[in-house]
Amino acid sequence: MTLSLERTPPSEALCRTRVVAVLRADSPEHLLPAARTLVEQGLVCLELTMTTPGALDSLRLLRAELGASADLGVGSVRGAEAARQALDAGAAFLVSPVFDPAVLAECVAARVPAYPAGLTPTELVTAWDAGASAVKLFPAGTVGPAHLQAVREPLPELAVMPTGGIGIDDVGAWLRAGALAVGLGGSLSGDALRGGDLGALADRAARALAGARG
Ligand SMILES: O=C(O)C(=O)C[C@H](O)[C@H](O)COP(=O)(O)O
């Protein structure tokens, strides 16, 4: 199907590293040291979720502290107002657990990459045809890489970012099944967002990136 829409492409950093760290914390306290650790390892695409208290203040802080070394987006975005607030705070991309056309419209207008979600072929194609930069397969862990491979056989044009329930050692399998990139939340963060060991976080980041390189 040929559409006359101008799709904002995913960032160069996402296409290169192929891993997005989903940072969902109970408090903003430990975000900065964890983010620094990930960026030092080369895991530079970071998604701060709106469910984290003070998420947009944290985004501003991380942007000031990490500058151009990180590709900082916002996740769990629902509704036009939240999308506008995240974009005003400088989000480099927006992610959602659903396909919300209002969020996508804000991203299209601002020419910022948008990653709305779907699970079924129809949901994924609907978000893709509406102009998603890539579609987030969510919750990916409930279906596995075989689902992605089967969906993309008749729909090879879809750029897909599986997220939700993915282990750090599963990255390679998802990329081989046709994913553009994967999102890693809990399996990557571990206890680092609660003040846990940053050395262990660095090791997990290195493992995830090694899996992405294949
Ligand atoms: O809400 C969004 O926009 C999200 O990005 C949701 C994330 O995909 C998951 O919260 C990550 O899930 P885990 O890797 O299982 O911890």
Automatic annotation (TrEMBL):
Q: Which domain of life is it from?
A: Bacteria
In terms of InterPro entries, this protein maps to: Aldlse_KDPG_KHG, Aldolase_TIM, KDPG/KHG_AS_2
Q: What organism does the UniProt record list as the source?
A: Pseudonocardia xishanensis
Pathway where it operates: Carbohydrate acid metabolism
| Database matches in SUPFAM superfamilies | Aldolase (SSF51569)
Keyword Lyase among UniProt keywords: yes
Assembly description: Homotrimer.
Q: Which residues form a coiled coil?
A: none
Q: Where are the transmembrane segments?
A: none
Protein's name in the database:
2-dehydro-3-deoxyphosphogluconate aldolase/(4S)-4-hydroxy-2-oxoglutarate aldolase
The UniProt family comment states: Belongs to the KHG/KDPG aldolase family.
PROSITE patterns in alphabetical order: ALDOLASE_KDPG_KHG_2
Task: Extract the Gene3D superfamilies matched here.
Answer: Aldolase class I
UniProt keyword list? Carbohydrate metabolism, Lyase
